Amino acid sequence: MICPIESKADSPVIIALDFASPLEADPFLALWGGREKPFIKVGVQLFYAAGPVWVKELVEAGYSVFLDLKLHDIPHTVAGAVRSLTGLGVRLLTLHASGGRTMMEAAREAAEASSGPEPPRLLAVTQLTSTDDRMLNEELGISGSVRDSVLRLARLAHRSGIDGVVCSGEEAGWIKEQVSGEMLTVTPGIRLDGQERGDQKRVMTPEAAVHAGADLLVVGRPITRSADPVATYEAIVEQIKKGRGHRE
Ligand SMILES: O=c1ccn([C@@H]2O[C@H](COP(=O)(O)O)[C@@H](O)[C@H]2O)c(=O)[nH]1
């Protein structure tokens, strides 16, 4: 089943607007002029440059916005950040599951207590898609596989009342089966066949990710660096339809 948070255009693709400033992001979004507005993700680079007022303007202009700030601090501070951000009207907001249960519960309670627009659904980042087993074990000193760690963090997020997780396509199906079918699975690390991975370690094609159980796909450079971003976006949407066909 495709989750109800997906974009109005019946497309589960979220475009990661990893640009330096609105001077780059605005002309990029204008390429969709006359078409259904895409679901967009604003991450730390653009948020730090553009600020909350610009994000609110996007929401007011009709964009569904995923604010990917990956909050990670003591519970009191994260709760305060969530309170500051809920008024923006964004649909999704991230925090790191590794901040622990008390931090995630504090974030959820802060979102629920908001009196403004509908609060964002919270997503817990499990292990970044740029992490592989070697990095986890040798650099971070965490034993076991990335998959085990992702499942453990997804369970913790679920127990903390968090709506969904950010994970790779490789883990989306396991989370649905082993944690909860209700957990929203949002998957970056999307690459088209044969495309450069760049810094991503756990990658999947759009079709394979949806087939594996991903609800929403985050796609940045494959679209933003494409010679024809709108055509690439539409080709990815087509691939997803195929992936859904295989899943049903
Ligand atoms: O584990 C994670 C969490 C977030 N991201 C974000 O998704 C996009 C991916 O961009 P690409 O250019 O398609 O690689 C980017 O904004 C990351 O901050 C992630 O990649 N992995």
Automatic annotation (TrEMBL):
Pfam families: OMPdecase (PF00215)
Protein name, per record: Orotidine 5'-phosphate decarboxylase
SUPFAM superfamilies assigned to the protein according to its UniProt record, in alphabetical order: Ribulose-phoshate binding barrel (SSF51366)
Subunit architecture: Homodimer.
CDD domains: OMP_decarboxylase_like
Active site: K70
Protein family: Belongs to the OMP decarboxylase family. Type 1 subfamily.
Cited function: Catalyzes the decarboxylation of orotidine 5'-monophosphate (OMP) to uridine 5'-monophosphate (UMP).
Top-level EC class as recorded in UniProt: lyase
Taxonomic superkingdom: Bacteria
Entry's EC annotation: 4.1.1.23
